[in-house]
Design brief:
This protein has about 270 residues and is an alpha+beta fold. It is built from 7 helices and 18 strands. The protein has one domain (about 10-270). A hairpin with a 2-residue loop joins strand 11 (about 160-165) and strand 12.
Length: about 270
């Protein structure tokens, strides 16, 4: 059977990850900040709807990227001008700093042999699919895991299914964990939710091939998943206003944060920009 490349050994030996970060950073708009705080949840977007059209491709399953949802973060405490420009509301947005164990229940992530870290969440997360294909319910989020940047397509386009002796072995761990080096400036750490998060064995039969692995005729219906944040994690939130935020806009951000997360901190950007 083909083995996943994204393992605990790969993280340590190739990616030089000695430990998971304690805090992560997310650049976004003020409008999105308000939605996060008001709903006390993070939106996970489906990878086929994100800005990299080569996300989460498989060599043997079409539309594999529709089965994975992600929330994208950085571990770099130093502010990033490219991330401010692209994701931070053209430098007039905000950067969120949150503890890694931010989700409901404050469970610590655990690094597994395959697929990297996984974090339990004290709620049910659902992904719906067109019947008769099976939908899924889970109580965990994959990650946080650092994206591997490479120009080698053998990492970016992975086989998901190995067929042998009438059994199909589905192995999803690498899906959505490698991107081209042109994206390396993002220095991304990623949380994922997947339709099928772990290895499965199926009878290699008509239902598997015509329904389960057919995401064109039996598509994933869910387009986004909202994962609840723990209220105590919001107490540890730090919101940094973008480098071009005016004094009046900064006051509005402070008022917004005070309304929904009174113990959170609001700071100004350390960058000087005209």
């Amino acid at each position: 059977m083909h083995k996943p490349f994204y393992t605990d050994d790969f993280m340590a030996d190739v990616m030089k990850i000695e430990r998971l970060p304690d805090r992560l950073f997310h650049y976004t708009s003020v409008d999105t900040l308000e939605k996060i705080l008001e709903n006390r949840s993070l939106r996970f977007g489906r990878l086929d709807q994100m800005n990299d059209p080569e996300e989460a491709r498989a060599s043997d399953v079409g539309l594999a990227s529709t089965t994975v949802f992600a929330s994208c973060w950085s571990s770099a405490s130093r502010e990033s001008i490219p991330l401010w420009s692209i994701y931070g509301g053209t430098t007039k947005g905000v950067r969120l700093s949150m503890p890694t164990n931010m989700f409901l229940g404050r469970q610590r992530p655990t690094v597994l042999q395959y697929g990297g870290a996984i974090t339990s969440v004290n709620t049910e997360l659902r992904i719906e699919r067109q019947p008769p294909a099976m939908s899924s319910v889970m109580r965990s989020v994959i990650g946080p895991n650092k994206v591997f940047y490479t120009d080698d397509d053998s990492f970016k386009v992975r086989p998901l299914v190995l067929r042998a002796d009438g059994i199909a072995h589905y192995n999803p761990y690498d899906l959505g964990m490698a991107k081209g080096k042109e994206w390396a400036y993002e220095d991304e750490w990623r949380f994922k939710i997947a339709l099928m998060s772990f290895a499965h064995e199926f009878p290699d039969d008509e239902f598997l091939n015509k329904v389960t692995m057919n995401f064109e005729e039996f598509p994933v219906l869910t387009t986004q998943v909202f994962v609840p944040l723990d209220p105590s994690a919001l107490d540890e939130l730090v919101v940094t206003a973008g480098p071009r935020v005016s004094d009046q806009e900064f006051d509005c951000i402070q008022t917004l944060v005070q309304r929904y997360a009174a113990r959170a901190e609001v700071a100004r950007s350390s960058l000087a920009m005209r």
